[in-house]
Automatic annotation (TrEMBL), chain A:
Superkingdom of origin: Eukaryota
InterPro entries (UniProt xref): UPP_synth-like, UPP_synth-like_CS, UPP_synth-like_sf
Protein name per its UniProtKB record: Alkyl transferase
Pfam families: Prenyltransf
PROSITE patterns: UPP_SYNTHASE
Known EC number: 2.5.1.-
UniProtKB/TrEMBL annotation, chain B:
Region (Disordered): 1-50
Protein name: ditrans,polycis-polyprenyl diphosphate synthase [(2E,6E)-farnesyldiphosphate specific]
Pathway participation: Protein modification; protein glycosylation
EC class (word): transferase
Entries under PANTHER family matching the protein: DEHYDRODOLICHYL DIPHOSPHATE SYNTHASE COMPLEX SUBUNIT NUS1 (PTHR21528:SF0)
Organism: Myxozyma melibiosi
Length: 276, 368
């Protein structure tokens, strides 16, 4: 047991940590805050292997971690959070694990829309992005219930990518546009980047500011390719997802906020020079 | 941000309040006449009425003045707090978070001051981290150098589990800087090409946002061959073929017997721009009835993109200090290992080699 976790077993420490985190959140709120953050939740299975747990328990631990991170996000004032829950490629995994993931998705979705839970507390509208046709019917029912119940919430958005790949997203957007063109509803000459963007799953969301991928893997793995390849800050973190703590995320936010403040300062100086 | 002129919020309430002589000219004449008439007894019976009028007027004046005063006070406080709010909103903070009440504003600024301190701490920490990484980069540059010897490069990549076949590099065009400009960029391309051949790479994509290199084939090949001679000598000179997907031009135009390295030049428009173009094409043929929209699948798009732009690279090396893809074609970075050296600002062999080593150690399991 490391010293850190030993100290945490002290009676008041947990309480103090929560309190300190609240203050940290109030501090972060006063500065520039990203509008849209995306997470690739990688490392659940490695975590399970390391702690000698079953795979499904690893995924459950991952969900716990997600709940903590989401809470911090919405407290800080991030409007949109997108998480990569399940890739289309993940259907290649052993059926037992796929079933376990589906079960977790179903129960947890129904849990967070419960009265007084996450969605209710922060006014989150839940959306599920991805190929609906691939989802089993019982999970689909849960998804429909969750989106229906939370669609009137306007404070924040939680996008759950399930089952999603970015290439599929782009191809689907293209197909939609071509279908409209086939019916002569639009002029092909008017097609541009903006229109393509408006046909993607993330159409109503602000531009992506930060993409976090855990577990030290340094590639995008077909997630938010279109959204992240320009000005987005990509952060590869060398921590397994269940061990990705709000503090760690807070430090990323602080770094972002500082860089943004410097950027604003530069813009301001440039404007002043223009006036002079 | 130009601050709102402080005289403006004060001026409107001032004019009526500070010039009472101008606004009530009739009352002044009325007030002067009773004072003179009070001595003469002839008009005494009329006095209570006049007196009442006078007191009424005086009261009216008083209340008016009070109202004006209060209004001025109110508006002053209001305006001051408005001004404070508008002036004290820090850059980047959301207006919706700002409160009009001064207490809340004070709390806000208390926290914001701490945030500024934290920002300073971050800046100091970044400085230290940058020192560390600069040292590390310099040390690695000292440790690994190509010495223009292909054997050394081969030795460096020997024993790696796998080496990438397709590599993409992200370069930046720098104006008016040492080693910048078109010449600097061409030198960089030549260097990267030499290392790539040494490391057994078959296809190299050179991404440069602004597209300076797209139609400089002849000069580029001259520079590359000049550099290759210093590595391989005249006798075993590898063959290189340049290609610009945008203009579909090869250089040399006729295909040689054996190509050691294919180099493709791409720019920002080959990313999103190409996907938009492709959509337009599909839409046009669908409008003519030549195409069924259902045919558009990930596979079809992928085949077209690989054929007409660049294949998906195994490894993307960013020769910049930050992990920003800078508009690199999005479709192609799906599973590419992305490598950059923190705080590195130059195109050096050690960064390239570290990228290749990172690729050798990574494990790609699509979905599994």
């Amino acid at each position: 047991m490391s010293i850190g976790s030993w100290i945490r077993t002290f009676p008041l420490i947990q309480y103090l940590l929560v309190w300190a985190q609240d203050i940290f959140v109030s501090i972060l709120r006063t500065g520039p805050v990203p509008q849209h953050v995306a997470f690739v939740m990688d490392g659940n299975r490695r975590f399970a292997r390391r702690c000698k747990l079953e795979v499904r328990e690893g995924h459950s631990a991952g969900f716990e971690s997600l709940a903590h991170i989401l809470e911090m996000c919405y407290q800080v004032g991030i409007k949109t959070v997108t998480v990569y829950a399940f890739s289309i490629e993940n259907f290649k995994r052993p059926p037992v694990e796929v079933d376990a993931l589906m079960e977790i998705a179903r129960t947890k979705l129904l849990q967070i829309i419960h009265h007084g839970d996450l969605a209710d507390r922060f006014g989150i509208s839940i959306r599920v992005l991805g190929q609906r046709s691939m989802i089993p019917s019982d999970v689909l029912a849960a998804i429909d219930k969750a989106t229906e119940m939370t669609k009137h919430n306007t404070t924040a958005i939680l996008n759950i990518c399930f089952p999603y790949t970015s290439r599929d997203d782009i191809a689907t957007a293209m197909r939609d546009i071509v279908q409209q063109s086939e019916k002569h509803e639009l002029d092909p000459a008017t097609i541009d980047e903006y229109m393509l963007e408006q046909h993607m799953f993330t159409k109503d969301c602000p531009p992506l500011d930060i993409l976090v991928r855990t577990s030290g893997v340094e590639r995008l793995s077909d997630f938010m390719l279109w959204q992240s390849h320009q000005d987005c800050v990509v952060e590869f973190v060398d921590v397994l997802w269940p061990e990705f703590e709000p503090w760690r995320f807070g430090s990323l936010l602080l770094k972002w906020s500082r860089n943004k403040a410097v950027e604003y300062r530069k813009q301001e100086m440039e404007q002043d020079q223009k006036i002079l | 941000m130009p601050p709102p002129s402080p005289s403006f919020p004060l001026s409107p309430p001032l004019s009526p309040a500070f010039s009472p002589s101008a606004s009530p000219p009739p009352s002044s004449s009325a007030s002067s006449s009773p004072s003179s008439s009070s001595t003469s007894l002839a008009i005494k019976p009329r006095s209570p009425q006049i007196q009442r009028e006078i007191t009424m007027q005086k009261q009216q004046q008083k209340t008016q003045k009070q109202q004006q005063k209060r209004a001025r006070k109110m508006s002053l406080a209001g305006r001051v707090s408005d001004m404070l709010v508008s002036l004290l909103v820090p850059l980047g903070a959301r207006q919706s978070l700002m409160h009009t009440s001064l207490v809340q504003l004070a709390v806000f600024h208390f926290y914001h001051t701490i945030l500024i301190f934290l920002h300073i701490l971050v800046a100091v920490a970044t400085l230290a981290v940058r020192q560390y990484y600069t040292l590390k980069n310099n040390f690695m540059a000292f440790l690994y150098h190509h010495h223009r010897t292909p054997q050394l490069i081969a030795q460096d990549v020997q024993g790696l589990a796998k080496t990438p076949r397709t590599v993409a590099v992200v370069l930046t065009y720098r104006e008016s800087e040492e080693g910048g400009g078109i010449d600097g960029l061409l030198e960089q391309v030549a260097d990267v090409a030499s290392w790539s051949i040494g490391a057994g790479v078959k296809h190299l994509s050179v991404y440069e946002r602004t597209g300076q290199l797209l139609d400089l084939h002849e000069t580029a090949l001259a520079v590359i061959e000049r550099t290759l001679v210093t590595y391989y000598g005249d006798s075993r000179l590898p063959t290189v073929r340049l290609y610009t997907p945008r203009t579909k031009t090869y250089f040399p135009a006729e295909e040689p017997d054996k190509v050691d390295l294919d180099i493709s030049f791409v720019a920002k428009d080959d990313g999103r721009g190409f996907l938009v173009e492709l959509t337009r094409e599909y839409a046009e043929s669908a409008a003519r009835g030549d195409m069924d929209p259902e045919e558009i699948t990930v596979d079809l798009v992928d085949r077209t993109v690989v054929e007409r732009v660049i294949p998906e690279p195994d490894l993307v090396v960013i020769f910049g200090p930050k992990l920003v893809l800078d508009g690199f074609p999005p479709w192609q970075v799906r599973l590419s290992e992305i490598y950059y050296a923190r705080y590195n600002n130059s195109v050096t062999y050690n960064v390239f080699l570290r990228g290749i080593r990172r690729y050798a150690n990574c494990k790609i399991n699509v979905g599994r």
